[in-house]
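User: Predict the full complex structure for these chains.
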Amino acid sequence: DTAVSQTPKYLVTQMGNDKSIKCEQNLGHDTMYWYKQDSKKFLKIMFSYNNKELIINETVPNRFSPKSPDKAHLNLHINSLELGDSAVYFCASSQDLWTFSNEQYFGPGTRLTVT
Amino acid sequence: GQNIDQPTEMTATEGAIVQINCTYQTSGFNGLFWYQQHAGEAPTFLSYNVLDGLEEKGRFSSFLSRSKGYSYLLLKELQMKDSASYLCAVRVSNSGNTPLVFGKGTRLSVIA
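Assistant: Here is the predicted structure of the two-chain assembly.
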């Protein structure tokens, strides 16, 4: 059983397009995250949600809009895609937001290529 | 700001021991994690330290010194499958939140 799943795994699109990435976790966790990993493999938090509520919104352009329809799902919509958006996007989840020792479980990643 | 430093690359021989260092200067400290990431795959959890000292888990051990802002991951009896990137991450305090901030990772190559 896949714990954290993402679709699609690969996404190739042109500049200016709008695209969405979907994430689902079946671990019963309360907290979900979106990370961006750039070409230099630097992994950086973008958003975190706790029980469908936005908790963290790092310095991310407002072209990126997360949405959590329920606590098992966290989607990421990106408007007006730019070349610099090319990266691997990871979804992750953890039991809750406030138990500091909680590990995060990562999805397989979505490799986005903007041409 | 948050600053987490790790060596970019390391090479070690199969069967040997390797130590991957991580130093950090962060706003608040709520624990330090190590994750392993094989090429093209997701990061997976290895260890968590919040108190000073050594935590051992099989072939992997992780050490923390909070006063020095320093941690290391020790891998013993290296195997070829240990070739991966190792990510140090600190749970910081930021405007009432506690996000995980990652270092840039250390790419370990295990050679025969």
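The two ends of chain A are 34 Å apart (CA to CA).
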